[in-house]
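In the current project phase, the collection of sequences with tokenised folds has grown. A sample record is quoted in full directly below:
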Amino acid sequence: MARWKGCYTKKGKTSLIYFFENFVMINERMEQAAERKIIFHKFIEWYFFEHPQRIIRGWKNLLKFNLEYFSIPLLLKTLFSPWKRYRWSYGRGFDLRRYLEAFVSNAISRGLGAILRIFLIIIGIGVEFLILIGGIIGLILWFTWPIVLVAGMALGIWLTAC
């Protein structure tokens, strides 16, 4: 078997096999570096695009839940309905005393219902506003957290270097 001069390396492998082994090793290192870049890219995509959408979706669900919890649309529709459906009958015939008594009692019941419903509507809108402000603050904190983290690490390194 004839051997070509310079065909073997110091390890005893042909230069072609040695070349492919190095190529595979370099290729694996490049793939690892690419994976790191892909992981970093996926993290950026998740942190700044995907997860904020989830936060906003959850925030909208909280706002909708609050509207249903305080029944604000229903309270607005039934604002001047009698409270707890307490109603007095006018009775048969025309008796002025009974007519005025029923009218005043029904007006008080409707007024009481309106006052309590307005109170509940104000509380519901106040909680809705707090959820709105909390969501805005949460999103601002979510987007500024990486800056705060990097600034804190830089400050810590700077303080230990001094």
User: Anything to note?
Assistant: The chain has three helices and no strands. The radius of gyration is 37 Å. The chain has a mean pLDDT of 81. The chain has one domain: 15-155.
